[in-house]
Amino acid sequence: MKTYQKIKELMEKEVSTEEEKKIKSIHVCSDFVPGKKINCIVNEDTTISIKKMIWGITPSWNTKVQITNTRAENIFSKQYNKSLIMQNRCVIIIKAYIEKKINSISNEEYVIFNNNTFLPVAGIYDTIKSTGLCIWKNNVLQCSMITKMAEKKINHIHHRMPAILPINSIDIWLSKKSTAIEIKKIITDMRIQNNDMSFYKIRGRK
């Protein structure tokens, strides 16, 4: 809960004018696409800070891959993901996200958001170092969003959704002292109250 309040404070500092504060979630999510920088919260030496990270991890050993999403169900089964989940956890801050309805003939898209606040999404990140195999000129922070099976209220849109952290789990998620058992429990228990989620269809969006 303490970290949640800190995140709120940090996010308020990111907004520079009163007019920007009035912008609703549906207008904030338009630039939330792979390859662009997004707000992430990390724990550095017990200090909670906000970092701009590129959404999508491009490992230096395979520049043709961009890991935008990581499934919660098998995050501990792959060595690379296991290393990051134990050492480099972050909270990806979004106010909404756009989802294309699966198997939609008319290409329906929906904005999905939380009625009360931002969405603290569980994530992992890596510092991609500049090497001969790397496409980046300098070291850069990149993140991957953890996803899970969609909640009942929105699974008619898509069967997957971002893994949204319960407010009381954020401190443990970011703590460098958390054990594998604690992290696995958070991933297993991640739920969000369906009443907090809202959505509506976007018409004519290209």
Describe this structure in words.
By secondary structure, the protein is α+β, with helices and mostly antiparallel strands. Helix content is 22%, strand content 32%. The protein contains 6 helices and 10 strands; from the N terminus they run αααβββαββββββααβ. It has helices at 2-14, 18-21, 25-28, 79-87, 170-174, 180-189; strands at residues 37-44, 47-55, 69-71, 89-94, 96-100, 109-114, 119-128, 140-149, 160-162, 197-202. The strands form 2 sheets. The chain has a 5-stranded mixed beta barrel with strand order 1-2-8-7-4. Strand 5 and strand 6 (109-114) form a beta hairpin. The termini are far apart. The model is unreliable at 17-30 and 132-136 (pLDDT under 50).
Notable features of this structure?
22% helix, 206 residues, alpha+beta, five-stranded mixed beta barrel, three-stranded antiparallel beta sheet, 6 helices
Q: What's the overall geometry?
A: globular
Report low-confidence residues grouped into runs of 5 or more.
Answer: 17-30, 132-136
Q: Secondary-structure element order, as H and E? A: HHHEEEHEEEEEEHHE
By DSSP, the count of extended strands is 10
User: Radius of gyration over alpha carbons?
Assistant: 17 Å
Oligomeric state, counting identical vs distinct chains: single chain
State the helicity in percent bands: 10-25%
Main-sheet strand order equals 1-2-8-7-4
Helix count, DSSP H or I runs of 4 or more residues:
6
- What is the residue-averaged pLDDT? 79
N- to C-terminal distance: 39 Å
- The structural class is alpha+beta
